[in-house]
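Reply to dn_fold:

You asked what the input looked like. This is it:
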Amino acid sequence: MNSKEGSGCAGAAPGSTNTAAPPLALRKELNLFDAVAIVVGTTIGSGIFLIPSVIAADLNSLGTVLLVWVVGGILTVFGALSLAELGSMYPGTGGLCLYLRKAYGPLPAFLYAWGLLFLIHSGSIAALAVAFGLYVGQILPMTTMQEKALSAACVLVFTIISCLGIRGGKLTQNLIAIAKISGLAGIILLLCARGSRPLHLFEVAPNAGGPAFSLARFGIALVAVLFAYEGWHVVSFVAGEMKRPQSDLPKGLFYGTAIIMLIYLVANIGYYHLLSPGEIRGSNALAAFAVGKLLGPAAKTVISILILVSILGSMNGLVLTGPRVYYAMARDGSFPGIFGQISSRYRTPMLALIVQGVWSAVLAVSGTYEQLFTDVIFTAWIFYGLAVGAVLVLRRTQPQIDRLFRVPGYPLVPLLFCVAAIGLVIITIVERPGGALIGIALVASGIPVYAFLAKPSAKRGPAAGSVES
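and this is what came back:
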């Protein structure tokens, strides 16, 4: 038996004629509701509460603000539809890594997993943890160091929960998803019902500065918006733990992203119906500020607590899903073997969870919110573009494979997504070259590791229990 699969597995005694016990596998526990809860609960985190103020600093009218949220939402739906086709073809654990390997070979898949661990996924967890600390600071007096310590501790707590089994993580995710949707619905209804400012779509905000519309500024705002949509794809990481992945994964992706887009648009309308653009730009805790203006300081504290619940749900979803990618890659022999070990008691990739949790905590302590989401989005969208492009590649190279779901509007939908991904990467390199270089360097640092791992794996072949089947 391959050594990577021996953790917690009882093999036959020396000289025994009994066959070895089958390798441990992840439990199939997730249904359609769980899939939608992962998409919504993971994606709606801190972005809709913090990012509108960042966007208001770049865009000078409500019309352009709504446009950038619509563009971000449409791109997200296009990406979800494309991944839905890939997921119906390859419903195993690992998501994008599996699709990248099938379309382009093992190196891009490895670099994505490497980038996930060191920046994309762990950086998203860290950004949410930083946002959690910022919002707790709205309720309790805390120093900067205390906020950072709280952020790191929060990551580690959710890591422990996920280590103890998929059921606990699933239940936590479902409950928080319900709570955050209910809380957000209450906030949106309050803002829309009590706001009194007229909504002028194309009126440039007074004292805004800069031109009425700038393509470069729109691109930078789109980077921020796409961070608010970040997380829609992670449900593909746990496809191997779904009861009916070929049907529930496409449905979960589509329903989840559609719900998110609607919520984000109505929330922004509510903000601008109550607050001036200057007030929106000047607030670093926008939802709490808006509700506090209507109902007073006590209500502001209640809303801050609801927002903290939302952030925690997103963080829990990311902590839960990421290690499944590292596990799947390790089981296939193309990632360090330690990540492929499963706890014999809890059936979770415990060591992968611990490594991700510790590194995310380090990033949370060392980074700022805006720095983290900029670096994450730039690096992630390189691979999102490649993954969606895999739909085009596999339609040509593997037309014989059954596709229970096909992208509507093919080939236009995946093509538009890929063009947008290229544009987003170019804009980020031009506007913020420092963060772009950091992201590229972290991903490229995986190349020598891949070269080291490729030599022994080529000799022994795929690991037993490969997740591709």
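The domain at 30-400+409-458 is CATH 1.20.1740.10 (Amino acid/polyamine transporter I).
Hope that clears it up.
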